[in-house]
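stage 2 :: seqdesign
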C-alpha cells in the first residue's frame, strides 16, 4: 500500500513536471460575433498549427499548449480574457485581437504584465506609436489607403468619395485615408458613414453618386457592412470603380456581396488569396502554398487572409522561441523584435525597436474580383 501511494505520488509529480514544461500560448479571438468571418479562420489556424508543431516534437523539445478564449469582438471581454491569460493562465505570449477595438483593449494588459502581444488587426494605432510589448502581423490601414491611392493614380483617378463603417477599423482607416489623400493628389469629395447594424446604405451612396466629378468610391470597413455597400453600389448602377479595404480580403466577402455585385471591386490584399497565380520564384510561394494546402485539407474550407494573419503570428512566435535564450516572456519579446527577413504568408517581416509591424507597401498585392474570384492587378 505504501509502495502504491509512493508510486502514485511519483507519477503525479512527473505529470505535473511535464505539464509545467508546456509552452503556454494565449489567444483572445473573435470566433463569434460581428467579426466571426475574421476570427473563425484565425482560431482554426492556431489550433491546426499547434497540433502540427506538437506532432513534430514541439519547440526545443517542449510542447505548445494553446489557451484560447472567444471574445466575440467585445473589447471589454478581450481585456478581461487578456488579464486571465496573464494572471491566471501564466501564458508567455498573447496572440489575437481580431479587431482593432479588441486589440487596443489588450495592449495595456500586455504592457502591465510584460507579456508580448501580437495583434491580428489592421489599425495603425496598435503599433504607432510603438508599444514595447505589442507587435502585429496585418498591414496597417494607412498602408491600405496608400496602396489604393497608388492604384488610383495609375488610373488617373483624383476625386474619391468615402463611405466608412463607424466601427473601430472603419473609423481608423477613414482617418488615415483622409490624412494621406493629399500626398497622393487625391481629393475626398464625399464623406459618408454607416453603423455596424445598418442593413442598407442606399441613402449614403445616393448622396455620393450625386457629387460632381466623382471618379471612384472607397469603403473603409469590414464584415457585412462592406458586402451590403457593394450590393447597394451595384443596385444603384454606379459607373465608377469601387475600392474596398483589406478588411474584406477573402472569398467570404465575394459570397456575402454576391459575385455579380462584387465584380470589378479592387482592394489591397495578400499573396494568400492568389497563391496559385504567384510565379515560382516568388519568395512567398512555398510558405503560402504550404499553409493553403494544410488549412484547406484540415478544415474543408478555402483559405483566407485573416487565418494568414494568425499563421504568421504563431510562426513568428515559434521562430522567436527557437532563437531566445529562454521561454520567459521578456526573452521572447526581445527575440520577436530581433526578427529579420521572416517569410510569412502576409509578407516578409523585419522588426526593429522603431517598427513593430515589419512590413512595407510591397507586401500588399492589388487585387480585383473577376468572374467570382481574385486576380492580381498588373
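stage 2 :: out
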Amino acid at each position: 500500500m505504501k509502495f502504491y501511494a509512493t508510486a502514485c505520488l511519483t507519477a503525479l509529480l512527473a505529470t505535473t513536471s511535464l505539464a509545467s514544461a508546456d509552452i503556454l500560448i494565449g489567444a483572445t479571438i473573435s470566433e463569434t460575433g460581428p467579426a466571426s468571418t475574421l476570427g473563425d479562420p484565425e482560431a482554426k489556424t492556431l489550433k491546426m498549427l499547434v497540433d502540427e508543431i506538437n506532432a513534430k516534437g514541439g519547440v526545443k523539445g517542449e510542447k505548445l499548449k494553446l489557451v484560447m478564449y472567444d471574445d466575440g469582438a467585445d473589447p471589454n471581454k478581450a481585456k478581461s480574457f487578456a488579464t486571465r491569460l496573464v494572471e491566471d493562465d501564466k501564458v508567455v505570449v498573447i496572440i489575437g485581437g481580431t479587431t482593432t477595438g479588441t486589440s487596443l483593449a489588450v495592449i495595456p494588459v500586455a504592457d502591465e504584465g510584460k507579456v508580448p502581444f501580437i495583434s491580428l488587426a489592421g489599425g495603425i494605432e496598435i503599433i504607432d506609436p510603438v508599444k514595447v510589448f505589442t507587435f502585429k502581423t496585418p498591414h496597417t490601414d494607412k498602408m491600405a489607403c496608400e496602396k489604393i491611392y497608388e492604384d488610383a493614380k495609375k488610373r488617373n483617378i483624383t476625386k474619391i468619395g468615402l463611405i466608412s463603417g463607424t466601427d473601430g477599423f472603419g473609423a481608423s482607416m477613414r482617418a488615415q485615408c483622409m490624412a494621406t489623400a493629399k500626398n497622393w493628389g487625391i481629393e475626398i469629395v464625399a464623406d459618408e458613414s454607416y453603423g455596424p447594424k445598418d442593413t442598407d446604405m442606399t441613402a449614403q451612396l445616393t448622396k455620393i453618386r450625386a457629387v460632381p466629378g466623382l471618379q471612384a468610391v472607397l469603403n473603409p470597413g469590414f464584415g457585412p457592412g462592406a458586402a451590403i455597400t457593394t450590393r447597394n453600389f451595384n443596385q444603384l448602377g454606379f459607373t465608377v470603380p469601387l475600392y474596398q479595404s483589406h478588411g474584406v480580403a477573402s472569398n467570404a466577402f465575394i459570397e456575402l456581396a454576391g459575385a455579380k455585385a462584387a465584380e470589378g471591386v479592387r482592394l489591397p490584399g495578400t499573396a494568400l488569396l492568389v497563391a496559385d497565380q504567384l510565379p515560382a520564384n516568388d519568395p512567398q510561394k512555398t510558405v503560402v502554398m504550404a499553409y493553403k494546402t494544410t488549412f484547406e485539407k484540415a478544415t474543408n474550407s478555402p483559405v483566407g487572409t485573416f487565418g494568414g494573419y494568425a499563421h504568421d503570428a504563431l510562426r513568428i512566435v515559434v521562430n522567436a522561441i527557437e532563437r531566445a535564450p529562454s521561454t520567459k516572456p521578456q526573452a521572447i519579446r526581445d527575440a520577436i523584435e530581433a526578427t529579420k527577413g521572416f517569410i510569412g504568408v502576409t509578407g516578409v517581416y523585419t522588426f526593429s525597436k522603431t517598427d513593430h509591424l515589419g512590413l512595407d507597401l510591397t507586401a500588399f498585392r492589388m487585387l480585383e474580383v473577376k468572374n467570382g474570384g481574385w486576380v492580381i492587378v498588373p
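stage 3 :: structure notes
- The first strand starts at residue 23 and ends at 29.
- The mean pLDDT is 93.
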